[in-house]
Amino acid sequence: MNRNYTDDPDHDYGPTRTQQRRDALAVLELANQLVELPPTRLAKLELPDDVRDEIAHVRRITSHIARKRQLAFLAKVMRRHDNEAFDSVRAALGENRDRQRQETAAMHRMEALRDRLLGDDGDTAASELIEQHPDVDRQHLRALIRQARVEKATPNKPPRAFRELFQLLKSLQDSEA
């Protein structure tokens, strides 16, 4: 007698093969992220000892194919553990991505402000900046803007004031936060 899936609707057949593959690829991606983390950040994460040892082993390998094969083995070692063992790691990596996105967005805003300060409407942008941050050294700010404009107009001149202006904007943002 041939049986099919409709014979016993209450039977749990487990995850589909496609879902198993998706889960395995997700673990492989997590393994890759762990290998690429700086050692200081990796030390802060709660990982099983065998996974830590395997990460160190993957990092020592320089050959592309051998590294890829060892990374797959690391994922296999990680799949032996429960998913709960890596929940805190996933949470930490997710929080770091959100923080990185926020920092990148803040940096883009500072770059846009610097471009406005160096552009045609630089005087109005400088006035707005001074209104927002009344404790800023106005003379230093205006001198940096002038020097950065000269640097921009002069070829082969290093952008020292351009960088200093960005650092000043960054320090103003940090003091605001």
Biggest sheet features: none
Portion in helices: over 70%
Radius of gyration: 27 Å
Shape: elongated
Structural class: mainly alpha
How many individual helices? Answer: 8
Low-confidence stretches: none
Oligomer: single chain
- What's the order of the H and E elements? HHHHHHHH
- Record field, number of beta strands: 0
Our estimate of the beta-strand percent is under 5%
Name the descriptors.
elongated, about 180 residues, mainly alpha, 8 helices
Please provide a written account of the structure.
The structure is a single chain. The termini are far apart. The protein has helices spanning 17-36, 39-44, 49-60, 64-80, 87-118, 122-132, 138-153, 160-176. It has eight helices and no strands. It is elongated, with a radius of gyration of 27 Å.
Summed up:
By secondary structure, the protein is an all-alpha fold. The protein has helices at residues 17-36, 39-44, 49-60, 64-80, 87-118, 122-132, 138-153, 160-176.
